[in-house]
Every structure is written in structure tokens, then in C-alpha cells.
Amino acid sequence: MIGSWLLLAVLLTGCASNRPHAPIREAGKATSTKSNREVAKAPAGFYRIQPGDTLYKIAFQHHLDISELVDSNHLADPAHIRAGELLRITPNQNAALAVRPGPGDSAAVRAMPAEPTLPPAAGDSGPDAWSWPCRGELLAHYGDGSKGLDIGGVIHQPIFSAATGTVVYAGSGLRGYGKLIIIRHGKILLTAYAHNARILVSEGQAVRRGQQVGEMGDTDAERVKLHFEIREHGKPVDPLNYLPKTS
């Protein structure tokens, strides 16, 4: 009888060992993974640099002149910024050092691409000749919620540089602008060309007035159009103050 019970116990033990075990979760594993993926929020008045950012992109996004970012953050080498660092985007004359890494960012920080080397600016006033970036129906004027002009057209219609300058941004990293081109003209002025279907220039490239830089599209837009801006010291202004009068 005892032998039978022992045999039964051995058989039950063998069956139990063949059953698949439920996975054992390591203590703190899920919390650790989640915390590693979380992006620390920037405090008020600061912006946390993201992979792929450039100073021109950040300045455009926050309506700042790039020189303001350089001065406010005491950047010794503005050609290099690092993901995870904080940039001050509001004036702070008392700050001894405004660029600083966030907690735990040191292992994930990587060098950003260098800003393009720009040719010497012809003057503070920028170019002395302008032309329209495309032909089409004027859908929206500057003001009334618009930072520039909206010009309607057809898909893949050519988009031209409105003035001679240098491309300082070409990409799709700014929400609401789709595929965007930003061109620098002198020391003060920038032009922006948004919602492109295709970008035909690259950062650092010198362009002439009237040179094709993109193709009209509807990226991040409700219809095919060009959204065109001119900015002085980072602030949007009415492009009609610069563009030639149309009949």
C-alpha cells in the first residue's frame, strides 16, 4: 500500500514538472522600462533638445532669432548641441549657464549635426530683390491667425526661393508645417516654405532668387497649398511688405 502511494506521488510530480510554468516577472522590470522610455519634461522657460534638432529649427519654432538662443544660453560652440540638454527660450539675464542636461540624460545624449557654415551676410537688411515663391490663388493673408500667406495651387507645382540666401532647415520636424524649408537671407531675415510634397534642397545649400527649392503639396495641411512666411529676428511679418506688387 505504501509502495502504491509512493508510485502515485512520483507520477504526479512528473506531470507537474511537464506543465508550462507561468512567466515570472522580475521585480521592477516594467517600471524600469517605462521610466527609461519617458522623456523628462522641460521646466517652464526651457526647451529640451530632441534628436535631429538644430538651432535654426528651435529658433523658428519659438519665434526667436538664433542669436537670442546663442546669447541666452552662453553657447561657446553654437554649431553643436546635444539631445537631452535644456535650452533657455525666455530671457534670463541673471542666468550664469542656461544649457544643462536633464537627470539621467548623460547616457542617452548624442551630438547633433553641425549647423551649416553660412557665407558672410551681405548686410543686416538682407537681399535687395524679391520675387513670389509661386503662382496661385491667395487663400490667406498675414494676420487673422495666419503667420504668413497661404497660396493655393496643384500638387507638385514648383516652389521657388523668394530671395537669394542659404538653406538652414529642410525637413518635417515642426508640427503643422509638414515638409518645411527655411532659407536665411542676411543676418535678420528668414523665409519659410511649408507643406511641400518634395524638398529639392539640403541644409547648407546656397540658393538664388527664383531657384526651385520644392514642390507644392499638402503635407500636414487640409489641401494642396504653400504656406509662406517671412521672419525678422525670428518674428513673423507681413510678406506683402517685401514681395513685389501684383497686378
State which percent range the strand residues make up. 25-35%
Principal-axis shape equals globular
Q: What does the largest sheet look like?
A: 10 strands, antiparallel
Q: Helix content range of the residues, please? A: 10-25%
The SSE order reads HHEHHEEEEEEEEEEEE
Taking pLDDT < 50 over at least 5 consecutive residues as the criterion, the unreliable ranges are 15-38, 93-123
C-alpha end-to-end distance:
112 Å
CATH top-level class of the domain at 138-241: Mainly Beta
Extended strand count = 13
Rg, nearest Å: 28 Å
Number of helices: 4
Let me know the CATH homologous superfamily of the domain at 138-241.
Answer: Glucose Permease (Domain IIA)
Structural class: alpha+beta
CATH architecture of the domain at 138-241: Distorted Sandwich
Provide the residue-averaged pLDDT.
79
The CATH topology name of the domain at 138-241 reads Glucose Permease (Domain IIA)
Summarize the structure in words.
There is one protein chain. This protein is α+β, with helices and mostly antiparallel strands and 247 residues long. Among the domains are: 41-101, Roll (Membrane-bound Lytic Murein Transglycosylase D, Chain A), CATH 3.10.350; 138-241, Glucose Permease (Domain IIA), CATH 2.70.70.10. Helices cover 16% and strands 25% of the residues. The protein contains 4 helices and 13 strands. The chain has helices at residues 2-18, 29-37, 55-61, 66-72, and strands spanning 46-48, 85-88, 100-101, 138-140, 149-152, 158-160, 165-171, 179-185, 189-199, 206-207, 212-216, 225-232, 235-237. Strands 4, 5, 6, 7, 8, 9, 10, 11, 12 and 13 form a 10-stranded antiparallel β-sheet that branches. Strand 4 (138-140) and strand 5 (149-152) form a beta hairpin. The longest helix is centred in the N-terminal third of the chain and has 17 residues, at 2-18. The protein is globular, with a radius of gyration of 28 Å. It starts with a helix and ends in a 10-residue tail after the last strand. Residues 15-38 and 93-123 have low confidence and may be disordered.
